[in-house]
Structure to design on (392 residues):
């Protein structure tokens, strides 16, 4: 079934699109080091996971989500399901990031894999629902929305995926409009009994990152949804009837786009303000030598810095997973990096060989940046994380 959304590019939508674009351009030209990017990206992943699962009723706090990300297991008696949901969402996020690095196309298989990771933590694609799914009000039990019948789910999903890919290829619509309409339609189809909201938000993230709105991976739209939850549900409630066949397919989607783009504008503005603070900090304590040396690195080397920030020793397989490349390609890269004295072998006698940064690069991102990083951490804890409501 062909997806043919109806909406109006109102003055309000135009204003929000312009604001999103203004913040996007400002952030893209701000000089932020690989070390800071890795830190901010990790914060964004924690926020996305916490808020996206919170929307679905997860009771874990931001601090507890952070503890799970750090490797804590079994520390939440009676909330094992919540812990599992968080771990699964992290897996789904990592998969999305890997597929983006691999320039994978948006397909139904990709969507099914994302859903499987969200729901059960497995990459085995989950089939669409085979029966009807009714969304009810948790307080009254009344029907809020009745999605399309199971036999229409597959053709509707095919139509949605085709529309997304064609829209991206044709480049006639602004990418935020494509992402917003895709989010709306996925929620409308409701192809699964459970996990639809989380999967829709991850699909939105994939589309925005694929179309150049990745913003260095340091923003989270999920926070906006969670803090404006009633507005989220209200924006999705479109049409004359709660039944899909009662006019939902022909409804004007402009109200949802207005909600969605307003959220993007707010989130992007927050990221811009945060990045500006980092720029000012870097300007005050900049070290020209470091900047020049970092510019010498190739993109894959800069990407790999974040691995060494988390762990002093990494394997070729970990580098392959991080960069989204094959192990053989990673091994070739590692060999070149050793020869160029970017990294070194930690212990040649070990069967499972590990690598670390050479002394020069280690000092460049740690020792010589110690004062700056200490200042950054103080700034983050006092200002940035307060603004983002992170309980670090």
């Amino acid at each position: 079934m062909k997806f043919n959304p109806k909406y109006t590019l109102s003055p309000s939508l135009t204003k929000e699109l312009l604001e999103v674009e203004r913040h996007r351009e400002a952030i893209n030209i701000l000089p932020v080091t690989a070390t800071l990017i890795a830190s901010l990206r990790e914060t964004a992943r924690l926020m996305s996971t916490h808020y996206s699962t919170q929307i679905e009723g997860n009771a874990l706090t931001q601090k507890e989500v952070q503890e799970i990300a750090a490797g804590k297991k079994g520390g939440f008696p009676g909330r094992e399901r919540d812990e599992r949901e968080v771990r699964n969402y992290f897996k789904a996020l990592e998969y999305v990031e890997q597929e983006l690095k691999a320039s994978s196309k948006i397909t139904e298989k990709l969507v099914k894999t994302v859903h499987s990771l969200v729901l059960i933590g497995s990459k085995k694609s989950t089939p669409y629902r085979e029966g009807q799914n009714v969304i009810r009000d948790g307080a009254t039990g009344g029907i809020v929305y009745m999605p399309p019948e199971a036999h229409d789910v597959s053709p509707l999903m095919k139509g949605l995926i085709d529309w997304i890919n064609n829209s991206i290829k044709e480049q006639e619509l602004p990418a935020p409009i494509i992402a917003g309409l895709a989010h709306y339609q996925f929620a409308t189809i409701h192809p699964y009994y459970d996990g639809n909201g989380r999967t829709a938000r991850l699909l939105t993230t994939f589309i925005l990152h694929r179309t150049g709105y990745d913003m260095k991976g340091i923003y989270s739209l999920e926070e906006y949804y969670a803090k404006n939850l009633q507005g989220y549900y209200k924006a999705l409630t479109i049409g004359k009837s709660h039944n899909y066949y009662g006019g939902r397919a022909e409804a004007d989607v402009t109200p949802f786009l207005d909600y969605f783009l307003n959220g993007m504008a707010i989130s992007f503005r927050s990221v811009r303000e945060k990045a500006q603070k980092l720029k000012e900090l870097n300007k005050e304590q900049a070290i020209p030598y470091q900047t020049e040396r970092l510019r010498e690195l190739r993109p894959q080397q800069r990407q790999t810095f974040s691995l060494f920030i988390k762990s002093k020793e990494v394997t070729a397989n970990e580098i392959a997973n991080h960069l989204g490349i094959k192990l053989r390609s990673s091994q070739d890269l590692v060999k070149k990096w050793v020869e160029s004295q970017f990294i070194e072998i930690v212990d040649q006698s070990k069967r499972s060989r590990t690598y670390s940064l050479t002394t020069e690069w280690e000092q460049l991102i740690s020792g010589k940046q110690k004062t700056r990083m200490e200042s950054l951490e103080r700034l983050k804890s006092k200002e940035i994380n307060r603004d983002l409501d992170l309980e670090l």
